[in-house]
Amino acid sequence: MCMCKQKLIKLKLFIPAGGASATPPLGPVLGQFGVNTVQFCNDFNNATSGLNLFFEENLEDDMSTFILVVDIHINEDRTVNFFINKPPVSFLLRMLTGVSVGAPQTVAGTIKLSEFIYLTQFKFSSAPLPSSAKMLKGVARSIGIKIIN
Which of 6, 25, 64, 80 has a beta carbon 3.0–4.6 Å from 16's, enabling a disulfide? Predict the structure, then answer.
């Protein structure tokens, strides 16, 4: 007999960084499975509170615009495990440069080389820097973002 926890429910939700609250829509979704939503919100907000250290100067009002993709696993004993996925590269580039719509034929925005390298290390921490920077450069070019020194 296996003593491991059986997975009851797997959810994928979009939650603002540092902005989880037990109010709708998150509260009712977790509450229907018997999850302590206040505890989940506290744990999630503590886990995502440091994300604004790099991005705070680039966000207009607050971290509520920084949406994270979160995988939530609810076990039979109503314990919760959550896994925070990093946002897409195009979202991060657009957020840093203030570009809403871009095109590869025009320069819609610019990003400093130091920010570009930091973003590459943030998004692809386990991949080699040269190959991940090359991929990120291609995404930036397709949006119309130019890398400057």
Answer: 64
Residue 33, in any domain of the structure: yes
Q: Which of 57-66, 87-96, 101-110 has the weakest average pLDDT?
A: 57-66
Domain count, the chain: 2
Which residues in 120-143 are b (16+ Cβ under 10 Å) and which e?
Answer: beebbeeeeeeebbeebeeebeeb
Nearest to 140 by CA among 148, 39, 20, 70: 148
Token pair recorded at residue 23: 């109010």
Gap between the Cα atoms of 40 and 42, Å rounded: 5
The predicted-structure confidence for 106-134, as pLDDT tens digits, reads as follows 888 899 999 899 889 988 888 899 999 99
Under a CB-based contact definition with an 8 Å cutoff, are residues 90 and 139 in contact?
A: yes
| Residue 12 sits in the same domain as residue 67 | yes
Pairing of strands 109-112, 145-148: parallel
In angstroms, how far is the first alpha carbon of the chain from the final one? 60
More confident residue, 101 or 136: 136
Q: Phi and psi dihedrals of 30, rounded to 5? A: -80, -35
